[in-house]
Amino acid sequence: MATARKNRDQPWLMRTYSGHSSARASNALYRTNLAKGQTGLSVAFDLPTQTGYDADSPLARGEVGKVGVPISSIEDMDQLFDQIPLDQMNTSMTINATAAWLLSLYIGLAQRRGIDPTRLSGTTQNDIIKEYLSRGTYIYPPGPSMRLIADTINYTVKHVPKWNPTNICSYHLQEAGATPVQELAYALCTAMAVLDRVKASGEIAPDAFPQVVERISFFVNAGIRFIEECCKLRAFGEMWDELTLSRYQVADPKLRRFRYGVQVNSLGLTEPQPENNVQRIVLEMMSVVLSKRARARAIQLPAWNEAMGLPRPWDQQWALRMQQVMAFETDLLEYDDILDGSPVIAAKVRELIEGAKREIENVEAQGGIIAAIESGYIKRELVGSHMNRLRAIESGDLKIIGVNCFQETAESPLTLGSDGAIMKTDPAAEREQIERLQAHRKNRNDADVRAALQGLSDAARSGENIMPSSIRCALAGVSTGEWGDSLRAVFGEFRPPTGIDIAIDSREVLGKKDRVTDLRTRVASTGNALGRPLKLLVGKPGLDGHSNGAEQVAVKARDVGFEVVYDGIRLTPQQIAQAAQEEGVHMVGLSILSGSHMELVESVLQELRLRDLANVPVIAGGIIPREDADKLLALGARAVYTPKDFNLNAIMEDMVDVIRECNGLERFALRP
Amino acid sequence: MTPVNLPDPEQLAVRIMRGERAAVASGLNLLDNKLAEARNRSASLLASLSGERWLNDGHLIGVTGPPGAGKSSLVSAMIREWRLSGRTVGVLAVDPSSRPELGGGALLGDRIRIKNSSHDEGLFIRSLANRNQLGGVATEVWPMSWLMLACFDIVVIETVGVGQTEIDIAEIGDTVCYVAQPASGDTIQYLKSGIIEIPDIFAVNKSDLGAPARKTASEIGRSASRQDRREDWDYPVCLVSATMNTGIKPFHDHFDRHRKFLANAGLLDKLRIRHQSAWVMRLLKEEFGTFGLELAGGQTQIGQRLSENRFNQFEEYERMRKHILSRFFFGKPTEQSNQKGAS
């Protein structure tokens, strides 16, 4: 019997992206996860925290504690890390627009506990560029946002040297449709933009600049095409090494290492036959551990049921055990790089590097990544890639088991439980967090708070590093919304180009031609029967900024003949109902991926009734568990679409029929 | 046989003049509706809303310019100023439709660019597709803008300028503003085309670009001053930046100044009467064709009748519609002629 060899490599950091309901509930979860062998923490924040709003802001309604933990002040941070020694923990925070603030709360908490900040280690995601392109939790315009990133880097390099102040993310680019070449190119362009900005700030002496380069880490995606993904990571390593040497003159090769963490792909996880996601996740993990030269420093895996809703502790444990089996049972960590010398791998890496270099030159010629975002170029490229993917799924060229082939299935015992196999967040969490915040506001020293906020505004205006004044705010008990609003007042808010702006000049039509022609006839004849063309409002209530789905539906609806008002993200239910009234639409389409669908859809329905628009049908799409979908239908929503409804033509047909029914017309005959 | 519930036009008119948002929305839906009964009621609604007051109140503003010039952001900045001074604003934002063979749909993206993030009861935005109608602005735009004029202090019509649109928009707005894009071929074409004769106010947006913006402004300035339209109006050219919020206040002030100029010179009501006649003619032609116009006595006679009832040309329009409809039904009196206001 074979036994494990002694000289094994150290495994990567094992984390689980988690947090929900409240600081107290999340703290309990973290301590359980650590007891199960997790070696680092990965904090998921709720959307109000990510976008700089207090729990009692009208925009936060229904969002508090949903996709992560609500952190309103240093007291919540204290509770989140209760009995967790900050100087021994490696904490990763998925936080971007408000990264400087959450880092300030963490540093402030360490100071309050008497821990020297130089002993803190961890990561703030702190990459705003991909927020503009995909994730949607941006607040400020590009200029001030890049300055906040540079401020955190400049501060941590000097005062919190073990911290990774920014994690350049290609992860979300792949979720938005990026090909491996695009992922490589845009991530490296982003890294250059960040480093150039830090350099331009003049805060770092030239001989200390290699230390800044060393602190830049990446957050990468790994999809199911695992050989290509493995090559992509080898390409990343080679390109980063070359770039940091040629562009930033980093002489020490150790400081040029491509350091990255991974969350494997969620885009390819399916709602039908969700148990298949287990093998998908394991195969995707292979691509980031297989090659020693390009192995991840930290891994977090999604749970098998992520396409259905929020995972339970047991689901997260299963994901952690996948990592542990890979690291401790297999012989993977006993070998040197097993892909070195393979001509097939080398050729693929070369091909990816050449493609990425061409695209980098292309972006640089346009004035760099920020100019290319403002002009809409990058979004257009990503939307194009994403449409190609959707078209391939609809045509069957891209096979997804259980979705567009092999749909036959026995009933899964995994999804039979009374909880619907997903986690429910505590419905009282929002009210409790609001009460907690309001109590906190009464308990603090108002004069200190005012002085600290004044210092923050002054620093924002003068260009002085934002971190020291933010840490003073943290210690004075300033709230997340107050921090966000103070900077909003100085920097303003930003609205980047959407997929809609881009689609206006694209003429892509998805799907089979005859079916589209038939759909157009249905849309037109229904419009004629009602007296005017069918008009649809598409919007995203709440704070969730993942707008790809909403944009796809809007573009598709336009292509089949709807007049579509796209109202974008971060809308209150009141704004949506008002828009529905002013625009005179025949249908309201809501997209919600944050799990706050129950509250938000109900409020929209209520606001519509208040305006005498109860007869305007509301449909909802998103990650909505079946049990919730049934409740939404009972509340008055007319249709609910989930990730299993991947065929946009079928959705459009259904939408037309819903409009017909609501206006006393017969449904069209089912397609044969 | 229609499944659609249509509102009573006279009651609706009363509610619109009281400024009820729901009534405004419902009135706009009615004016957009092409069912026969809806057209009857639309005509009644416009006649009920009409009156002498309509020739002197409010301010109808047309904003046009090439795609990408930043019209929506600029309109958004202007709305902030109007709202600060306590005036209510209605906006009709027109976007192009895709060609009929591509489904004829439209993505209406102006709303997201115009609106402010906070809820505002004094602002009403309606997006419209131009529906590929010949001659720039869709025929729905004009009656809709008049409906909005009955209840908002300011009505802004925003359209993408492509030649014919400027001509149409000049037959809607009291004041027409052209938004130019610095260093853009569109603006050069525009300068050459002679359409420059139309706008009353010019804005060169993105003035933060510096030299190219100043150059475009001076080119427009040279062309604009040579025309022979109104001697006492100076056709201002403004450098503005909607994103940096610079130059907005002086630019904004020109709109009030232009309206005062029209009113003092006694031009405002004349202009509106002329616009009404042109559009009534166009509405009739769109619904009934040249043959229909002949049935109503031909263009000259229609023009004569409209000018006789110039304080409520819509009343005349309603009468002529009924007349034409009755002729279409071989001279027999039809139900329509007795159905005014039926609910």
Features:
A: 672 residues; alpha/beta; TIM Barrel; 5-stranded parallel beta sheet; 15 strands; globular; B: 343 residues; 13 helices; metal-binding (chain A); MMCoA_mutase_a_cat (chain A); Protein meaA (chain A); cobalt (chain A)
Written description of the protein model:
The complex is a heterodimer of chains A (672) and B (343). Chain A is of the alpha/beta class and 672 residues long. Chain A has two domains: 13-375 and 410-415, TIM Barrel (Alpha-Beta Barrel); 499-662, Rossmann fold (3-Layer(aba) Sandwich), CATH 3.40.50. In chain A, 50% of the residues lie in helices and 8% in strands. A five-stranded parallel sheet of chain A has the order 1-10-9-8-7. A five-stranded parallel sheet of chain A has the order 2-3-4-5-6, with helices on one face. In chain A, strands 12-11-13-14-15 form a five-stranded parallel sheet, with helices on both faces. Chain A is globular, with a radius of gyration of 25 Å. Chain A starts with 12 loop residues before the first strand and ends in a 10-residue tail after the last helix. Chain B has 343 residues and is of the alpha/beta class. Chain B is built from 13 helices and eight strands. Chain B has helices spanning 9-17, 21-32, 36-49, 71-84, 110-114, 141-149, 164-170, 185-193, 211-224, 248-264, 268-295, 298-308, 313-328, and strands at 59-64, 89-95, 106-108, 123-129, 154-158, 175-180, 201-204, 237-239. Chain B has a seven-stranded parallel sheet, sandwiched between helices. In chain B, strand 7 (201-204), helix 9 (211-224) and strand 8 form a beta-alpha-beta unit. The relative contact order of chain B is 0.13. The model of chain B is unreliable at 333-343 (pLDDT under 50). The A-B interface holds A 493, 495, 498, 500-501, 503-504, 507, 509, 516, 520, 523-524, 528-533, 554-555, 557-568, 570, 572, 574-575, 578-579, 581-584, 611-612, 663-665 and B 2-4, 21-22, 25-26, 28-29, 32-35, 38, 97-98, 102-109, 111-113, 117, 119, 124-127, 129, 131. Strand 12 (563-566) of chain A pairs parallel with strand 3 (106-108) of chain B, so a sheet runs across the interface. Chain A: Its cofactor is adenosylcob(III)alamin. Chain A: Belongs to the methylmalonyl-CoA mutase family. Chain A: Residues 533-662 form the B12-binding domain. Chain A: It holds the Pfam family MM_CoA_mutase. Chain A: Keywords: Cobalamin, Cobalt, Isomerase, Metal-binding.
